[in-house]
Design brief:
The chain is an all-alpha fold and about 150 residues long. Helices cover about 75% and strands about 0% of the residues.
């Protein structure tokens, strides 16, 4: 790590923490800690392995892959349960747009820093797949608008 890298390390870490807070809190609140922890742990491994296999010579780190797994999870849930909007849909659109912009190489060219694109895509894809399995297993019922309504009426 040199001085140029350290200038991006703290903002990157803070941005990842903000992403986990914005996306993770509503996911964990509805899905439960066990399902949320499974998503985080599996996507951390999947995203880091994807990046390692894509470019083993690159030194990388961070939670971006997990943040993108949460983005993928929210994307699936908002399509499975269209009424669930604990996370604004615009955040998902912005994150996917940033994912695609980074993949073009433009961010690396302009800022002069490497982007762990394989980790981002690995996280996003693992979040999509795990959340799809979660929904197929019936977990999406926790994200229904009727969940809150039924408990209030009971």
């Amino acid at each position: 790590m040199d001085a140029g890298d350290s200038a991006f390390f703290l903002p990157h870490a803070l941005f990842n923490a903000l992403g986990i807070w914005i996306l993770g809190r509503p996911l964990e609140a509805r899905a439960g800690t066990l399902a949320f922890a499974a998503l985080v742990l599996f996507s951390a491994a999947a995203s880091n392995l994807a990046q390692y296999y894509w470019s083993p010579q690159m030194v990388f780190g961070g939670m971006s892959g997990v943040v993108y797994a949460l983005v993928g999870g929210v994307f699936v849930l908002q399509r499975w349960q269209p009424g669930w909007r604990d996370v604004p849909a615009g955040i998902v659109a912005l994150a996917v747009g940033w994912l695609l912009l980074c993949a073009t190489g433009l961010v690396t060219y302009v800022l002069g820093v490497g982007v762990a694109n394989a980790a981002h895509f690995g996280g996003f894809i693992s979040g999509l797949l795990l959340t799809l399995l979660y929904c197929l297993a019936g977990g999406a019922r926790h994200f229904s608008d009727n969940t809150a309504g039924n408990s209030a009426a009971a």
